[in-house]
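Quick one, T. Sequence first:
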Amino acid sequence: MSTLSYIKNFLTDKNVASITPSSAACVKHVCKKIDFSRSVIIFEYGPGTGVFSRYLLDHMTKESKLILIELNSNFVEKLRKIDDPRVSVFDDSAAEAGEIARNLGIENADYVISGIPFSFLDEQDKLNVLQQTFDLLRAGGKLLAYQTSGHLKDPIRQIFGMVHTELELLNIPPMLIYEAIKNEG
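Structure tokens:
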């Protein structure tokens, strides 16, 4: 999907958070926090055109699974063209991640990557998605979110206890990358 098409979706869909797909630098920055040496289950909230998805598939083991949850029907159509048995695409909200996992017979995920615009959600919906994410992750699992501002730090801290942030300037717009680990206890 071209940048022009991406911009059109941005202008017509209030749930699309950026006018351009994530940069290669942003994708690599987020994904360096993933252990690709073992089989993993990764949920991606708001994969858009699949920039992260393709990178993940290029680095995941053959036994790994990637579950893509996207609300924009144009993006869903594009994602469904990814021909890889490790991928499952859902035209749904991240708020349904727990139900999707149950329907797939997945008990826990190793990673959740999220580009959804949490700033567009009201406080209760934001906390609900974060709590479901926490519940979905295995002990030691990670939430890796990328956002345009620091608005998500306190809500993540409220659910996960701790959060680490890093800035990625080589993206339009620059992104704040959040890393939260589900504690063993």
